[in-house]
Amino acid sequence: MEMTEFINQYGVERKQTNSLKWDALDVRYGDPDLIAMWVADMEFKVPEAVQEALHQRVEHGVFGYSYTPDSYYEAFFAWQKKRHNIDLEKEWVRFSPGVVSALYWFVNIFTKENDSVMIQSPVYYPFHNAVLDNNRRLVRSELVNTNGHYTMDLADFEKKVVEEKVKLFILCSPHNPAGRVWSEEELIKVLDICQKHDVLVVSDEIHQDIILGDNEFVSSLNVGNGKYQDNLIVCTAPSKTFNLACLLNSHIIIPNEDIRNAFDLGSKKINQCETSIMGQIATEAAYRHGEEWLDSLLEVIEHNFNYLKKELNEHAPKAVVTQLEGTYLAWVDLRNYVEPKEIKGFIQDKCRLAIDFGEWFSDECQGFVRLNMATNPKFVEKGVQNMIAELQKIDG
Ligand SMILES: Cc1ncc(COP(=O)(O)O)c(C=O)c1O
């Protein structure tokens, strides 16, 4: 479907729909009139087939305890095979209401209090919270930022793994907010270190379907022809891909039987929750019928990001725009214009934007902003032009 047609058919206003992004601006930012470009969901309705499947269930009118049918697994596995060449087995799959909940479970099940857990920062802030809220030691290996391009510091990573006796590593692949789709070569190196030092890897692949340009996503399940599967838990979900976050259905994939048994035992103690029937129905329909919708969405994201990059490069060239390889979250360093501690006033009061602030992802990143590109281009245009007008004032 052509981009404009997609926007016309699926674009939607979200104010006054209990939307965290739009209706909690006052609570979260102290200002209800900002343009909402923060939290990672979208101003697009789900694929038509998903809405129809949900309608049918609403018509039926029963929301009792549910069972996951074989057809669900067929649709999920076919999607993973077609889009990512991943071969899955039913026994490997567990469910959670969200990937963040799952991260909390893993920290509880696979580590003890005061054990060390590694992350690569800047990274999606619930990674920190899952570790700190459970009284584990947070070990950070900072990614290396070279003019906005991020790479892993493997020497630092390995040194800290050894020195801090790290038990668990939470990998973000593709990476939010660094926009990287890690190459297989990079993944081999980091997974090798973890295997060598017996560090269990959780690979959060929630952004696996949002891959731009020629970038190629390689799941940790497939890295080195599957050679790390025995030391691995992978999380995937339809929630970012199809805008289904609050239908509370995501996947935990554990190929190794011993890790799976440990997970099952541990999760019995802390997790007696049902799966969401609406999430299950929406997911199956999305994986069966959502491919064309997703391909159009990717065009919109790419269009929005290219607009932001081109405009900032031309009119505010000292803003450092990280190339968006994957995810729909653009990452921009404004420190050449704005004193890091002034960034909130600049972005909110001057540019009139609600964005994710860099310091949420790492203490080192005050002065960076993360802007959501999965939205109607009219918001990106307005947001970017507001920023340029204010940045040009600073530049004199
Ligand atoms: C890397 C990453 N993991 C997890 C989530 C959220 O997952 P969930 O809503 O399933 O808890 C996000 C949301 O932006 C994310 O970027």
Automatic annotation (TrEMBL):
The keyword Transferase applies. Transmembrane segments: none annotated. Residues 45-381 form the Aminotransferase class I/classII large domain. Belongs to the class-II pyridoxal-phosphate-dependent aminotransferase family. MalY/PatB cystathionine beta-lyase subfamily. Its cofactor is pyridoxal 5'-phosphate. InterPro entries: Aminotransferase_I/II_large, C-S_lyase_PatB-like, Class-II_PLP-Dep_Aminotrans, PyrdxlP-dep_Trfase, PyrdxlP-dep_Trfase_major, PyrdxlP-dep_Trfase_small. Its EC number is 4.4.1.13. Keywords: Aminotransferase, Lyase, Pyridoxal phosphate, Transferase. PANTHER family: PROTEIN MALY. It comes from the Bacteria. GO terms for molecular function: cysteine-S-conjugate beta-lyase activity; pyridoxal phosphate binding; transaminase activity. This is cysteine-S-conjugate beta-lyase. Signal peptide: none annotated. The lineage of its organism: Bacteria, Bacillati, Bacillota, Bacilli, Lactobacillales. SUPFAM superfamilies: PLP-dependent transferases.
